[in-house]
């Protein structure tokens, strides 16, 4: 994981973005997180090390990372945005009870993009698929679900 954080930082520097310790920490946290955290969760995790950092700083830097193509913003209805630094082609299974998001790969779905491009003439730039259900922890907590 360390190498990809460094590659991301180099990409930002080459586009003229100054790398602050806060930016380094936010990006590192995201790239090592499997939980698709919200800005508030990132703030709670990093504020002990950066007491002067505000939630606004987190939001501003997340926007910067999203615009630079380093991070994906995941919006789910009324829930606040979650952020994902895994930019590989992957999908999300989302628990309707606790909100846990789990990544999974399913390469055959890339054929959907090719078919869409053939049928419509679009230059396809991506797609998103989400699976909804109840995670194993929540199922274990509620009998017969």
From TrEMBL:
One Pfam family, short name: FUR
Cofactors, names only: Zn(2+); Mn(2+); Fe(2+)
Location of this chain's protein in the cell: Cytoplasm
Superkingdom assignment: Bacteria
Free-text cofactor note: Binds 1 zinc ion per subunit. Binds 1 Mn(2+) or Fe(2+) ion per subunit.
The family this protein is said to belong to: Belongs to the Fur family.
Protein name (record): Peroxide stress regulator PerR, FUR family
Binding site for Fe cation: 127
Function (record text): Manganese-dependent repressor that controls a regulon of oxidative stress resistance and iron-storage proteins. May act as a hydrogen peroxide and organic hydroperoxide sensor.
Primary subcellular site in the record, as a coarse category: cytoplasm
Residues that span the membrane, as ranges: none
Originating organism: Paenibacillus pasadenensis
GO CC annotations, alphabetized: cytoplasm
MF terms (GO), sorted A to Z: DNA-binding transcription factor activity; transcription cis-regulatory region binding; zinc ion binding
Keywords associated with the record: Cytoplasm, DNA-binding, Iron, Manganese, Metal-binding, Repressor, Transcription, Transcription regulation, Zinc
Higher taxonomy: Bacteria, Bacillati, Bacillota, Bacilli, Bacillales
Any one of the GO BP annotations: regulation of secondary metabolite biosynthetic process
Record: residues binding Zn(2+): 95, 98, 135, 138
Xref: CDD domains: Fur_like
């Amino acid at each position: 994981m360390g190498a990809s954080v460094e590659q991301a930082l180099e990409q930002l520097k080459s586009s003229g973005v100054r790398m602050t310790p806060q930016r380094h920490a936010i990006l590192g946290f995201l790239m090592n997180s499997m939980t698709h955290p919200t800005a508030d969760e990132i703030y709670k995790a990093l504020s002990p090390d950066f007491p002067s950092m505000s939630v606004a700083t987190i939001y501003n830097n997340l926007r910067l990372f999203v615009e630079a193509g380093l991070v994906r913003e995941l919006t789910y209805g009324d829930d606040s945005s979650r952020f994902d630094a895994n930019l590989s082609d992957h999908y999300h299974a989302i628990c309707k009870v606790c909100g846990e998001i789990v990544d999974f790969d399913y390469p055959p779905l890339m054929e959907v993009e090719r078919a869409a491009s053939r049928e419509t003439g679009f230059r396809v730039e991506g797609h998103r698929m989400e699976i909804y259900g109840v995670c194993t922890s929540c199922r274990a907590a509620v009998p017969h679900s």
